[in-house]
Structure formats: structure tokens, C-alpha cells
Amino acid sequence: MKKEEIRSRIKAQKALLSDTERRYAAASVFELLEKTAAFMMADKILMYHSLPDELSTLEFIEKWHDRKHFFLPRVNGVNLEVLPYNRSKLQYGAFHIEEPTGDDIENIDNIELVIVPAVAYDRSGNRVGRGKGYYDRLLAKTKATKIGVGYDFQLVDEIDADPHDIEMDIIITQSATITIKHRRR
User: Fold this and answer.
1) Which pick of 52, 73, 83, 155 has the fewest CB atoms within 10 Å?
2) E-assigned strands of the chain?
3) Of the candidates 164, 70, 165, 77, which has an alpha carbon nearest to the alpha carbon of residue 119?
4) Which residues make beta-bridge pairs with 127?
């Protein structure tokens, strides 16, 4: 399935969700995430600050922020920078997403786990983002474990991946944790 077709279909399905369904899905997905070895072992974790149509990360970050070191991305031109999470140092940035402020940029090499948002994933670890390539450029620079999270319906049969697309290591939805067996590169 083509990426634009996937984006259109998923957007329509997200629009049908009630607030209760959204909260339940986020709680289910992040409960499964907490049980992964990658999360248990990681100290420095890059999260995303959720948009209204994404699984909400707010309660999860609040629950764990005193035991894990969370980081959030900030748009800088065509790239993402990684900065420490501090609730009192957030402001709306590019694309009306709350981003960290300041100059305390973390080297992506120090991040052990990246929780990656997407429009859709397939069982091979491919993802469809929003189409700007921010995460693919950032993920190409890290050896951190990459976990994609989403609603059950965000898991599609197949995604036409481009050569620059970065695969996930694990995908978690409300009802599944899928560990990807990567092809040799």
C-alpha cells in the first residue's frame, strides 16, 4: 500500500476514536512497553511529546520521569535535536508540538531507547511517518533500540519502504508486541 493511502486511511480511523478508547489504548500500549527488556534496562530514553491524534505519552512520562531520564526532540531546520525533558521548560515549536527549550542538547549516541511515533507500521518494522523525514534522519544516527508504538489499526500488512527509511526493532500496539527479525544489511 502506498504511503499517502495509508496516511489517509489511518487518519480516518483515528477520527472515529472516543476519548475513552484513546486513553485505554495509550495505557495498554505503555503497560506493554514497561514489560520489555529494552525499557527496563534503558536509563536514557527519547520519547515524543504526543499530538492529539497520537497515543498520549503524557501520563507515561509523568509516571516514570523520576526513575528514567527522558528526552524529547526539537525541530532545528530539517533535523531533530535531543534535549532533556523538563515539564517547566516546554514551549510550542514547529508543527505546534511542545518541545524542550534551552541549549542542553544531548548526543544521540547517549540515548539507549527511542520511542518512535508513526502513522503506521508493518510486521517487518517499516513505518510511515508524517512525510517530512525528521525521525528517519535522526534514527539513522543511533544504535539505540527503536520501539514503534500505535493503535492496533496502525499495524498494516505491508509498507512500501524507501531506502532511507529506518526500521523499528519492536512494535507495540494494544494487543501485540512484535519483535522484528532484521535482515542482514
Assistant:
1) 52
2) 44-46, 69-76, 79-84, 90-92, 98-100, 113-116, 120-122, 127-128, 145-149, 155-156, 170-173, 176-179
3) 165
4) 121
**DSSP secondary structure letters along 21-40:** HHHHHHHHHHHHHHTSHHHH
Cell of 114: 527511542
C-alpha 124, offset from chain centre? 16
DSSP 1: -
Using an 8 Å Cβ cutoff, are 168 and 147 in contact? yes
All 3 cell numbers of residue 53? 491524534
Distance in angstroms (rounded) separating the CA atoms of residues 22 and 58: 13
pLDDT digits (tens, 9 = 90+) for 9-44: 999 999 999 999 999 999 999 999 999 999 999 999
Whether 135 and 166 have beta carbons less than 8 Å apart is answered as yes
Determine the distance from the C-alpha atom of residue 184 to the mean position of all C-alpha atoms in its chain, rounded to a whole number. 24
